[in-house]
Amino acid sequence: MKKLWQRYCERKTSVVGLVLLVLITVIAFIAPWIAPHQPWDIVGTPFLPPFEDSAHLLGTDTLGRDILSGIVHGTRISLTIGLMCMVATVILGLALGAVAGYYGKWIDDVLMRSTEFFQVLPNFVFVVVLVAIFRPSIGSIFLAIVIVSWPPVARLVRSEFLSLRSREFVEAAVAVGHTNRWIIFKEILPNALSPIVAMSSLMVASSILLESAVSFLGLGDPNLMTWGYMIGTGRTVIRGAWWMSVLPGVALVSTILIINVVGEGLGRAWNPRLSNGAAR
Amino acid sequence: MERFEYIAKRCVKAVFLIVLIALLNFLLIRMAPGDPAFVIAGESGSVDPLFMAQLRAEFKLDQPLWVQLWTYLKDVLQFDLGYSYRNKAEVIDLIVARLPATLLLTGTGFLLAIVGGVLLGAVAARTVGRWQDSTIGLICMTIYAMPLYWVGLALVLIFAGWLEWLPAFGIGSVQPLEGWDFVWDRITYLTLPALTLALHYIAVYARLTRSSMLEVQNQDFVKLARAKGLPPLRITTAHVLRNSLLPIVTFAGIQAGNLIGGSILVETVFAWPGIGRLALDSLLVRDYNTLLGVFFLCSVMTIVFNLIADVVYSIIDPRIDIQK
Amino acid sequence: MSQTLIEIKNLSIALPKGLDREFAVRDVSLTVDRNEIVCVVGESGSGKSVTAQMLMGLLPPTLPLVNGTASFKGVNLATLTETERRALRGDRMSLIFQEPLSALNPVMTVGEQIAEVFRYHRDETPDVRKKVVELLAAVRLPNPEAAYDSYPFRMSGGQRQRVVIAIALALQPDLLIADEPTTALDVTTQAQILELIRTLQRERQMGVMFITHDFGVVADIADKVVVMRHGEIVERGAASEVLGNPQHEYTRALIAAVPRRREHSLSEVARGEPPVLRVRGMRKVYRTGGGLFKRATEVVAVNDMDLDLQPGETLGIVGESGSGKSTAGRCIMRLIEPDAGRIEIAGQDTSGLGVHAMKPHRHLVQMVFQDPYASLNPRRQVGEILCSGMINHGMAQADAERRARELLELVGLTTSAFNRYPHEFSGGQRQRIGIARALALKPRLLIADEPVSALDVSIQAQILTLLRELREQFGLSMVFITHDLRVASQICDRIAVMQRGVVVEQGATEDIFDSPQHPYTQTLISAMPGRLSPLAVT
Predict the structure, then answer these.
(1) How far apart are alpha carbons C177 and C54 in whole angstroms?
(2) Does A120 sit within 8 Å of B303, measured CB to CB?
(3) N or C: which end of chain C has fewer CB within 10 A?
(4) Which residues pair with C305 in a beta bridge?
(5) What is the pTM of this model?
């Protein structure tokens, strides 16, 4: 654990990214207390540009709602949904991929055919269809995102398990009589995690982006003021009031960037050293 | 013969997938909240019970499920995707009318993305570790973090709003134009939306090309090519690129579906009259028939593109018949 | 015209900072003349490949030349521009290297890859195709016309290496640098390729710099020998001198480490007791491919195999790749499920048992694996790896740990290894850990699957000695799987020769070597490097 931390800290950008990520997470937690207003409350004159009024640092939207508050509260929603979707997707993908990769044969066939089917469906259109059919809510969005996101994770896990299953140290574990369960969890899984860790950060980022795109189209949870929703409502007046769409977008882009930086750093730190003994 | 068998197998699989998607569509329509008759009527406003009864009979909604399924499958495979009561037209006609616009947009975007992405990625791979590589990496990472629709909005703001170089909305000017004026006009309207779509995927393809080329560059046969005393350009094109392109082709096939999905967002931002906007508009008025018709067609298109990618792959890679 | 092709004087090439030594090669001087074969011998890390790559101008900028000169036909290579060096590469000097399976571009035809050399070095070459086909015939590829249009994946390792040689010799270079060209090949193929290189060298009067780690190969083909270690030359001279009368202790150690036929007393074989291993009719078939339009191809990996092993005996299973020897070993271990046959270990029939039923019998037979880098879980400590099996069989944690430390000492490692990770150890040390693990459950039978093939020659000898000692100490019976007859002779009482899944000959080691019956066995024996040389005498 400590070694992982040391390796992670070797790169400055990763550390900066981590600090910023922690900052964003803290903001998300204490959002209700630090945001100057409730995001849905009409608290000021509409169409107020940013940096003009100290009560509304980032301006107001078409109805007079405070943009800064909207962005701060949106942090909470975005991070939550990103994390929840990632966890669900990874667990589902891990479970299915591990079983398929380890046991092979018909189980593997079934899984591969299923992932092929899902991968043929155009992802975003499918999310939109699902959200429309199940009525827009944070729950249906969560479900839709997980449904389209699990196939690549499952395939990755499957190929890792497939290649590790025939490694000699796994054979050695069979030779001393260990059970399949033991081998999957104790021998293979720790070695298969490296690409999964790298993919997890991508999952968080893509989940946040998917949710925001759905909200942008107006299909988001009607009770939640998300970044996507804010960008969407500001769309029609963009030429006159650029800040309504641009500023929440900046928050979104920054968050995604930071998550990607941290994810990349984590993936690099997790990778076991290529231990190939002799120098050439 | 083996390649023929490979393609034949792929075609059979494609047909099978199309049938499965039709099944999924059928289920989705049934799962939509509310009476299927309502759904089909698309809330066109008719609550007349006689009309609804008529609808039910016509769509055999009073029949057992499997009969409905069979009818649906038969219809779909004959390209009858239902009727949009809202728009008072056959769904298939609605789609076909708007399809060229979407194809124009996604096709241009795809071309730009591939060409730009592969070039950038190749440059990054050739200059790995140096400033060109880092810069390209940084730019790609930033673009990749930007949502598609936000990029579109930003481009509208900058190029149509502030600079006023390019038009923002629609596919072309309202007034009739001839010859070169017409073409040029259409190009100006196409620029921003295609660029939006392309930018995101340029980042994706650049990254993929770079990592693919780096991996190939380190392989033994490249070492041998250098030992042969071949000029660097020949090594890059004939040896490195040809082998690097394989994963890119596979990826492009898989991405085809997402490109079409991305068009929903771009068409919304730029008021582009394609099937993406048709899907969204239908959704907002609960015309699920049309929405699912678009969904079905997009899936079919993805399958077709995948097939094309597989064929291209099998042409480039002679080993394809021994790999499954 | 001067006879000297290559003259290297006091060459030093630096390594990047942070590695275990400062120089890749240090103060190295050697010459290669026309019409002679100079063998550069050394183990991994000796700097021999770096020297070869430097001559070809293929070194990365991270390995700079810091001192000395290297000349080709009197011209200092450092004074040439990149374009001039490229003109030499492939034309006047060529390189062939170790991995034939990955040395050719998979998406380009074989003929095109050879033709490239003509097209880019000679502006106008009429009849390129004809010339290429002639080359393919010269390297003895069957059906050269068809070979031109085929792709590398259709060819075996040996065939691909012939193509690589064809590429190297296309323009009749003065110098050929061969960097371990036969190491990755089967013994019989190795012999053929060596013969080919020797013949072509004589025909074209080339100078050849042949890099190898195997003194047996050196004995077969070298005119001059240069011995390298840790980047420095420790000895050089005419082949007969260096082989017959080695001066430096390292040279002597290397020559002594070459596995060769050994007169050794049979291990203590308990007579009259029931066999510890008895295999009857074991069979394993692999089915691949098969689709809508054609039937699956069947490969019979192990075909009706019968084996007997007395307690205390060591049986060698010798064969080349594809012979089924590893599959056989894994079937006995029940790591792979045989399709048919009866396996009795220490009287216990294990052939039909399921996973649960097998567990109490697992301790009877254990395995030592081939690849020291893949046989230990990189994410677990050595101590954990050793204790894992014992704890699984009911031993208490403390007892298991104590025994694990004993085992570590037994195999020649310190107990401090207990808390370290596999990547902290060298290949030879990891193999010792693997042996310790195999002994943890006190097996009656040990199956060693090519346990020394991935190790340097000097380490090989150490591990073989260790195995012999442990065998005596614990009265182990062993099945020793290898592709190298020389290694088998070091440790085996009896040898079974396998070819394509079938045991073609079985007998006492002496009988196999002195009077081989089956033609395949005879081929194997004649293909052993170093057989007909002063090395052969112990």
Answers:
(1) 11
(2) yes
(3) N
(4) C282
(5) 0.84
Q: Is C243 exposed, middle or buried (0-12, 13-18, 19+ CB in 10 A)?
A: buried
DSSP states of C350-384 as a string?
-TT--HHHHGGGGGGEEEE-S-TTTSS-TTS-HHH
The alpha-carbon gap from A238 to the nearest alpha carbon of chain B, in Å, equals 7
Quick one: pLDDT at residue B42?
57
Residue A53 backbone dihedrals phi, psi, to 5 degrees:
-120, 125
Who contacts C51 (Cβ-Cβ below 8 Å, separation ≥6)?
Answer: C8, C11, C25, C28, C40, C228
CB A279 within 8 A of CB C19: yes
Contacts of C among chains (3+ CB pairs under 8 A): A, B
Residue with tokens 């697992």: C362
Q: Which residue of B has its CA nearest to A250?
A: B146
Question: What pLDDT does C263 receive?
Answer: 60
Q: Give helix then strand counts, H and E, for chain C.
A: 19, 20
CB of A177 within 8 A of CB of C393?
yes
Block mean pLDDT (10 aa), chain C, length 538: 80 84 88 91 86 89 87 88 89 89 90 90 81 90 89 88 92 91 86 90 91 88 92 90 88 81 61 83 82 70 90 91 89 89 86 82 91 90 91 89 92 90 90 93 93 88 91 90 89 92 90 90 87 53
Greatest Cα-to-Cα distance within chain B, rounded to the nearest angstrom: 84
- Cross-chain Cβ contact C377/A191 below 8 Å: yes
CA dihedral C444, C450, C453, C457 (to 10 degrees): 30
Q: Which residue of B has its CA nearest to A133?
A: B32
Of B17, B28, B254, the CB nearest to A133: B28
Helix intervals (H) in chain B: 2-31, 36-41, 49-58, 65-77, 91-126, 131-145, 148-155, 179-217, 220-227, 232-234, 242-270, 275-284, 288-316
Adjacent-strand bridge partners of C208: C37, C176
Q: What percent of chain A has pLDDT over 90?
A: 31
Find the closest chain A residue to B154 by CA distance: A246
- Measured between beta carbons, which residues in chain C are less than 8 angstroms from residue A168? 369-371, 374-375
Flag if A172 and C437 touch (Cβ within 8 Å): yes
Angstrom distance (rounded) from CA A40 to CA B218: 56
Q: Mean per-residue pLDDT for B222-229?
A: 91
Q: Cβ–Cβ of C153/B319 closer than 8 Å?
A: yes
Q: Please indicate whether, in this complex, the C-beta atoms of A168 and C375 are within 8 angstroms of each other.
A: yes
Q: Are strands C502-508 and C340-345 parallel, antiparallel or unpaired?
A: unpaired
Q: Which residue of C has its CA nearest to B226?
A: C58
- How far apart are alpha carbons B65 and B63 in whole angstroms? 6
Picking from C313, C329, C320, C433, the residue whose alpha carbon sits closest to that of residue C375 is C433
Task: Tell me the C-alpha to C-alpha distance, in Å, between residue C175 and each of C38, C70, C164, C512.
Answer: 11, 14, 15, 40
d(CA A246, CA A268): 33
Cα–Cα nearest to B202, from B250, B249, B155, B136: B136
Interface check for A168 against chain C (CB to CB < 8 A): the answer is yes
Q: Which chain C residue shows the shortest CA-CA distance from A190?
A: C379
Checking if the pLDDT of B52 tops 80, the result is: no
Q: Using CB atoms, which chains have 3+ pairs under 8 A with A?
A: B, C
Q: How confident is the model at residue B116 (pLDDT cuts 50, 70, 90)?
A: very high
* CA dihedral (C88, C90, C94, C96) positive or negative: positive
Q: In this complex, which of C19, C20, C441 lies closest to A176 when CB atoms are compared? A: C441
Residue C46 is classified by DSSP as: S
Tell which A residues from 82 to 111 touch C, by Cβ distance under 8 Å. none
Side by side, the strands of the sheet bearing C340-345 are C297-309, C277-288, C340-345, C348-349
Q: What is the Cβ-side half-sphere exposure of residue C493, based on CA atoms within 13 angstroms?
A: 20
Chains touching B (3+ CB pairs < 8 Å): A, C
